[in-house]
Amino acid sequence: MNFNLSSVLLIFSYVLCAIAGPPGIEVDTDTAEDNSVGNEGLSSVDHSTPSSDVDRSKCPKHLDSVVAINDQEWLFFRSNKVYKLNNRKFVDSGRPIQQVFPRGPQFVNATVSSGPLTLLFVERTIYGYEYDGVQFTEAPNYPKELHDRVLFYPQGAFPLNNGSVILLSGNVFATYNVQQNAPSFLNDKNRYFPNLPEDIKSGIEKTQGFTDAYYMFDEATVSDYDMNSKQVLQLQNIPDFLKCT
């Protein structure tokens, strides 16, 4: 019998963690089991392979990750640069990540916010930063290594309202307790979060502190995702969603 990587990871996940819904999110099993609902009728989007758009524009059309600092200020990561957004508008031409995040990485695989922390993930390393409204400083006891019960490298992430975060790779996710630096739950993304983008990079709460609705990003598109119905309400290309000045 042949097993793909996701299947192997899920077998380990069931052994390592109790089968219970991830903290901070009420799981509707009736909705979760119905994965047949597609995105028909949504606006057409650009699924072309992204070229290197960083050097040609101060407003990239594709992203590696995006994280919210607060309701107005977001950070948009592409290649080795990070761009500042204010009210979904690019307000600078991007700076090297290591200029914004001292002793930080040259690139990121995933980013997410957790309370006052902004977390950057590169393979199994977690970089943590605090923001004083002007600049980022390295948080105490960071960087850290991802707990060895998480068997994948995070390729996407989104926050919960209890300080934990969701880490994703392919069809596998982990609910991760940031304070304890340990997972509390691992399972199948398509079971608990059906209709999410296949290769989700980031999720941002539409209103900070409320986890009933998110903007979910893959490399080229943004999905308006309702966490209660587990449905995508609208799908847009990144250049249509973000404003370039």
What Rg, in angstroms, do the CA atoms define?
A: 17 Å
Assign a percent range to the helix content: 10-25%
- And the CATH topology? Hemopexin
Shape: globular
CATH superfamily: Hemopexin-like domain
Tell me the structural class.
Answer: mainly beta
Q: Which residues form runs of ≥5 with pLDDT under 50?
A: 5-44, 47-51
Instruction: Specify the biggest β-sheet.
Output: 5 strands, antiparallel
* CATH architecture term: 4 Propeller
CATH first level: which class?
Mainly Beta
Plain-language structure description:
This protein is mainly beta and 245 residues long. The protein has one domain: Hemopexin. The protein contains five helices and 18 strands. The strands form four sheets. Strands 1, 2, 3, 4 and 5 form a five-stranded antiparallel β-sheet that branches. The relative contact order is 0.19.
What are the main properties of this structure?
38% strand; five-stranded antiparallel beta sheet; 5 helices; single chain; Hemopexin; mainly beta; Hemopexin-like_dom_sf; Hemopexin-like_repeat; 245 residues; Hemopexin-like_dom; 12% helix
Short summary:
The protein is built from five helices and 18 strands. With 245 residues, it is mainly β.
